[in-house]
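User: Reviewer 2 asked us to show a designed sequence for the structure in our supplementary figure. I'm pasting the structure tokens here. Could you produce the per-position amino acids so we can include them in the response letter?
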């Protein structure tokens, strides 16, 4: 079932071309992909071949070799799976703003999946303005489409939770896998456009390409991690998910970021395993994750300091001249040159693996605020490092996670220097949660 609320049509052009074009953008998978299934429906209705295209942008802002490697592995999974289903797939090199209009002249329609951040939305609008055919955007990376969950930017999880909970019965339904009636694996109408290659995107690495690969990319790997989580880890999730040494998390955030697994698929499978961790995990997957998309969708300044709530900017402004015991530059922080060995290990883990446990990332962001001369600079540094080094950076969850460190979706706490009434975290708090020294020693041994 594809709920009509997931589907948005742009323009009213009649379908006159030779094929259906699915411009894959944010959902790099073939399972539980509403946009793909909708495109197959249209292909079958019109008796036209379906072609799937992904535009691989070499200079995507803040993307590193680690990001491209993860994405490329996901695209290879897509290629294999679509081939098995008789659907043609091409990875084209360049910006979709240049490529999609060039290949749309003979398309009946363009189907795409929804993107939320500014660049994705700009791409979509420019394509819509440039093409001569109907464009349909299908939401498939949210359980509840963002405009259905709430019509405005929400103050907190407390205000958002009852709204999205009321909508869940309408959207927590499996998606039927369809089969194409007109196969298209040998149909390649875009031969004049350069196909992307793996080598092309490894010529100028932003990070050291010898870094260990903590997570392999692709929907097959994502399914493996979800299955492993459900086989027993979820039972420990509620009690230990804030302990980085417990290995009680799902490790799915990067796969969600690249659209290599569906949050709907995750939710339905988690709900089939009732237990102590189920509700706690669904709170993170549904309420917290979709709240972050609400923030990015409705707040045009989601990636700027002035996009924070007024109360957070007011309290930080009141304390902007407070003395800092330690002060570090972007270069100091990026190169792990602080007095705090634990923080240095966190930054090193991000650089080497593209992953940092969520509880540690909160501490990591709070310390950047504490150690930077002014809060505006701290915000820019935290966002830059998160985007550059985290596999799930440059994402609504990432933007919201950094904003949370500065008070977004939180409440005022006890007033203190530098932080004002923003929630404070310190090393003693980490030690109460888990054996910090052991985690630090292992991290430094692995990645130094």
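Assistant: Here is a per-position design you can include in the supplement:
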């Amino acid at each position: 079932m594809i709920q009509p609320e997931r589907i948005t049509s742009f323009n009213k052009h009649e379908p006159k071309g030779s094929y259906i074009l699915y411009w894959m953008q944010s959902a790099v998978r073939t399972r539980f992909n509403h946009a793909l299934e909708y495109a197959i429906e249209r292909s079958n209705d019109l008796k036209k071949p379906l072609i799937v295209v992904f535009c691989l942008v070499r200079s995507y802002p803040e993307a590193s070799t680690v990001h491209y490697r993860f994405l490329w592995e996901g695209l290879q999974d897509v290629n294999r799976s679509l081939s098995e289903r008789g659907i043609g797939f091409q990875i084209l090199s360049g910006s979709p703003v240049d490529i999609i209009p060039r290949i749309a002249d003979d398309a009946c329609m363009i189907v795409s999946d929804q993107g939320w951040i500014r660049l994705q939305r700009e791409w979509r609008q420019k394509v819509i303005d440039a093409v001569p055919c109907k464009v349909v955007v299908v939401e498939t990376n949210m359980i509840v489409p963002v405009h259905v969950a709430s019509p405005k930017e929400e103050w907190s999880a407390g205000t958002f939770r009852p709204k999205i909970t009321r909508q869940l019965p309408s959207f927590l339904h499996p998606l039927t896998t369809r089969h194409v009636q007109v196969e298209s694996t040998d149909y390649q109408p875009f031969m004049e456009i350069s196909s992307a290659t793996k080598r092309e995107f490894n010529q100028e690495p932003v990070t050291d390409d010898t870094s260990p690969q903590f997570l392999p990319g692709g929907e097959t790997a994502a399914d493996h991690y979800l299955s492993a989580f459900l086989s027993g880890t979820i039972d420990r999730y509620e009690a230990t998910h804030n302990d980085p040494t417990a290995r009680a998390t799902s490790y799915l955030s990067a796969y969600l970021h690249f659209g290599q697994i569906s949050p709907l698929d995750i939710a339905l499978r988690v709900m089939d395993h009732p237990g102590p961790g189920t509700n706690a995990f669904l709170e993170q997957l549904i309420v917290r994750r979709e709240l972050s998309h609400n923030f990015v969708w409705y707040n045009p300044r989601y990636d700027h300091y002035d996009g924070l709530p007024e109360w957070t900017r007011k309290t930080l402004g009141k304390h902007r001249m407070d003395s800092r015991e330690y002060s570090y530059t972007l270069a100091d922080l990026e190169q792990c040159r602080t007095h705090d060995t634990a923080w240095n290990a966190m930054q090193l883990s991000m650089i080497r693996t593209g992953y940092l446990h969520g509880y540690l990332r909160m501490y990591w962001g709070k310390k950047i605020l504490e150690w930077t001369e002014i809060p505006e600079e701290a915000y820019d540094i935290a966002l830059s490092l998160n985007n550059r080094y985290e596999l799930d950076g440059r994402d609504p969850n990432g933007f919201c996670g950094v904003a949370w460190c500065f008070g977004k979706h939180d409440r005022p706490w006890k007033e203190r220097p530098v932080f004002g009434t923003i929630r404070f975290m310190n090393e003693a708090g980490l030690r109460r949660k888990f054996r910090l020294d052991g985690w630090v020693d292992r991290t430094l041994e692995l990645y130094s």
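For the response letter, you might also mention the following. The chain has 18 helices and six strands. The first strand starts at residue 7 and ends at 10.
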